[in-house]
Here is the input.
Amino acid sequence: MTGTRSFIESVSGRRVLVVAAIVIVALLPLVTDAYQQDVLTQAASFALFAVGLNVVVGLAGLLDLGYVAFWAIGAYTMAIFSGSGPLQFAHLNVWAILPLGIVLAMLTGVVLGIPVLRLRGDYLAIVTLGFGEIIRITASNLDGITRGARGIPSIPHPQIAGFDFGNSPTPYFYLTLAMLIIAVFLINNLNRSRVGRAWVAIREDETAAEAMGINTFQMKLWAFAFGASTAGIAGVINASRTSFVSPNSFQIIVSILVLCMVVLGGMGSMVGPIVGAAAIVIIPEALRDFVPAGVRFMAFGGILVVMMVFRPGGLLPSRRVAAEQRGIGVAGEEKTGVEGADA
Amino acid sequence: MRKKRLLLMFAALSAVALVTGACAEEGGGGGTQAGECESESLQALGATAPDLSSKDFKTVGFSQKAPSVLAQAGRTVKLGFIGDLTGANSNLVTPSNEAAQLAVKQANEAGDLDVTLELVSLDNKDGGPDPAPALAQRLISDAAVLGVIGPAFSGETAVASPLFAEAGLTNISPSATNPDLTTNGWRTFFRALATDAVQGGQTGPLIVDVLGCERVAVVNDRSEYGAGLAEAVAASVEEAGGEVVLNEGVEPTTDYTSVIDSVLASDAEVLYYSGYVAQAPLVVKQYRDKGGEGLFMGGDGDKGADFIAEGAEAAEGAVLTCPCLDPNASDDPESQEFAAAYQEEYGKAVDIYGAEGWDVTQIFIAAIRAGGANPTRASVLEYVTNLSDYEGLTKTFNWTPEHEVEEGEITYVYVVRDGAYALAGRVDELLAE
Amino acid sequence: MPDCLTGELPFRLVGGLSTGGVYALIAIGYTLVYGVLQLINFAHSEVFMSGVLAGAVVIGALAPDGATSQAQGAMFLVAALIPAMLASGTLAVVVERVAYRPLRRRGAPRLAYLISAIGMSLFLSYAVQVWRGVNPEAYPTTLRAQAVLQIGGVRVFNKDLIIIVAAIAMVVALEAFIRRTRTGRALRATAQDPEAAALMGVNIDRIITVTFFIGGLLAGAAGLLFGMAFGRTQWNIGFLPGIKAFTAAVLGGIGSIRGALAGGLFLGLMENVSAGCFGTQWRDVVAFVLLVVVLMVRPTGIFGEGT
Here is the structure.
């Protein structure tokens, strides 16, 4: 099997695999019906989320439980700037709003990150959860801007050269797929650069990283910002696809679900979160007639626990993370409760 | 020694708490003392509960035609239904759904349709707008669906109707009452009952003139329906000369302590909860638990069976309004026929919006019948749009240019008495007295 | 001074303290576990939920139509208390065995504990949804509302008083337990320095089990009181009180039992008062804002860390 393995691990081999995968996925709409394409589009959307959260959790090692807030930013940007809500100051189209959504999401990531990133692991998680809820409830209360809990309907679909995306999922699938590919490409490059190496250092031993001169705070902020950006993209596209935005879509369970995707698929790797997203969106839909919704979520919870106990790196962890999990060469920073007052 | 003292303290404290909590006097607890406003109002309404158990229903020649062979031939045509069928507010929706099922069944058995009719019911457990677009899409994608009954609630109607309008699929709601729904120019959306502008608009005179109360606290659940109704109620109370001492919104939750404290602090005589039946019993129970003695009022969203079932004693004496007719209390022979048929089919009395659901389904059935062997969405839309003087159970249907019912300024008043809803009358009639 | 702080305060005092009492009892579970394991037990909100549910099941079995007298109502409550506490206590222990002990054995990083906790919370809440359904279930009526005290113009009602007294009483009892018994001392020792405690012969595993059990007991009591006060149980009813209780624990100083009590009462009061000032729709935000602010500005809380 070494032949196959070395092919997979070689640079050109991987490139071939990636291109092949993209081609196959891009051809899927030809052999699937509207409902299945809808599921695929949702999977692609969640893959965007997962890839972004992976930057925060898998690459930089920060547990963000309020990740859904960035999705909300993207979605409400689409709703408000297209003039669908109570504020009628702008009537931009999707293409103008996409970059705006990205920027606003990144900005939110930075703004949330600055006060929060100095905190220790568990506290960071809870604070981000708190922020996520604050944003959701605020969106639910600002009737003049977001129409409150009633939501904003009739958001326009994207149009390109006279062609209206309409209600069919196919064009959205391609759009989301394109965004996903671009995002993965950019993040992969980032991960291989100085920034990515800094993230590894922070994840493995923050104190040592600081001692080596890495500006850990800034690096963590970058992680937050980039992680937020993909959620912003997906938020804009989703809002335009469903034509409707409401605060109820941005509950904590979504953040947890995306976390589940990253954990299951494999933290730190590029492919892992995508596989995780696809698995968690597609498999329950396929089993929908046999497995009720509640059992589905029970399974997700169970997966999280089981994964942590038996395979914390996920199904397809990056080689580095897998090594960490096996304890090769690097000691994990924080272990069990047997610890001094390390803040 | 200290341990013993501590334990003794603990025991003493808990004993005190338990004893004071379980004081020997029962029944004299707060909550059953009616404020002055309330006792007046109950007298004014003079409500008596209809005796459903012994009512002699006359079954007047209901469709007993032999099922035609032809009824099974022809293509299948579907009617869609969207609403909360199994969720926390389902007792507001299942009656209209069951009425629709009954109507479809009878239409198929009658044999005078050139097609076979089928009802596709989609469950929006949430009752809210979020799942609605996807449900609407499912109906739109099914080419056999020629009309949609519903959606049931205002929030879901607001997001589903634009999609139906785009697809040319007619939807008539038997229960969505938010007034703004018809201001969007959706050519395919029609509403079969009076709006909250009417219900809310008549509540002010009801409270001030009929019931003689002045200080009203309005609490809504921040939903499309709840917020809209509360707005109308607050405005009409002020206009009628009353005072809105509190106007707040609380999203559905379990702990209403804060808002109830606000209501108590405002010294209101009436607590009007504009929301759904899943929450209303909580609000009224917690209100009474904290010593709230004012009159509890609400709109049609509160008027479900669960309000009485869960609200128990706290719900007694509550006054709820509804644009909906209660066919069990009606003298009209056709309504009684319908009530009897429903009772026979489902083993229970028809509840809120059952009659409206029936009317809407019958309108669709007439539209489909008019299309002969090949009704289409367009033919159904045309028929419904041009509907003129259609005699339904609840009213005669004529549409305004905005697709509201013309003869629609009706609000019924119900009082909870002895664990059941009693019809007190129509607001306009009560005002005239 | 705005009216929401002066005029309304008397009305809001009792309600705030009563809700706060429930938060306090739940908060103790968080604070105990954190004191010993430095772990946020995310699944504790579901332990609380199981107490609410257990109470509903027991009272529902005893009297589906509710109590017919105050005395009977009180009896039902007392009868349901032990089962509710035991159910929650047991569940807490099970959670520890399944979700955390295996990680301890493997020396897993902190992140893994948190993710496992989240997974457990998810699993338990949806398991209850599958079992009991999506819709809420009503608590049968036990006590009728009855004013028991009159302080100035404000009436204090029986249910509120019961909750406040129960919360204080349980905290007092717990403190007595911690200070007086051997197990309590072992608990304190483990919280201070697990290695030294182990060297002194303390069975760390057993102490951890006891910690979770106690936290669960109190959460179960909180669950019953919650059901009595608000009248309902549902599969997802644990989430919001759980988060708020955690806020309370942090407010009062995570690791401190008295801090949990103080934090809980304070939070309940704050919530209620700010609802009056800013409008009820902002009430839940207050808890989250407090959480964020305290964690960022003074993570050690009012009483500081320590048992």
User: Anything to note?
Assistant: Chain C has a mean pLDDT of 90.
